[in-house]
């Protein structure tokens, strides 16, 4: 799996996850449960991971949706 986004913004993650689902790209939001351990302070960022073979397609979809600034290099 390839990391495309790392953020604390749950709205951005929700949008990105929805876009991946609509495109049929398997994705995973990692570190969601870490907020329980940190006391919901928002210190630990969540990561959007997508399947290796479709990472470039996923990047294109996220760019087209206006999330280019959120993408990891």
Automatic annotation (TrEMBL):
Gene3D superfamilies: UreE, C-terminal domain. It holds the Pfam family DUF2007. It comes from the Bacteria. Residues 1-66 form the DUF2007 domain. This is DUF2007 domain-containing protein.
């Amino acid at each position: 799996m390839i990391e495309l986004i790392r953020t604390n913004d749950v709205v951005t993650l929700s949008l990105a996850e929805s876009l991946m689902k609509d495109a049929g790209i398997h994705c995973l939001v990692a570190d969601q449960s870490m907020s329980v351990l940190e006391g919901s302070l928002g210190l630990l960022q969540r990561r959007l991971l997508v399947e290796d073979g479709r990472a470039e397609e996923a990047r294109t979809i996220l760019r087209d949706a206006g999330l280019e600034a959120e993408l990891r290099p």
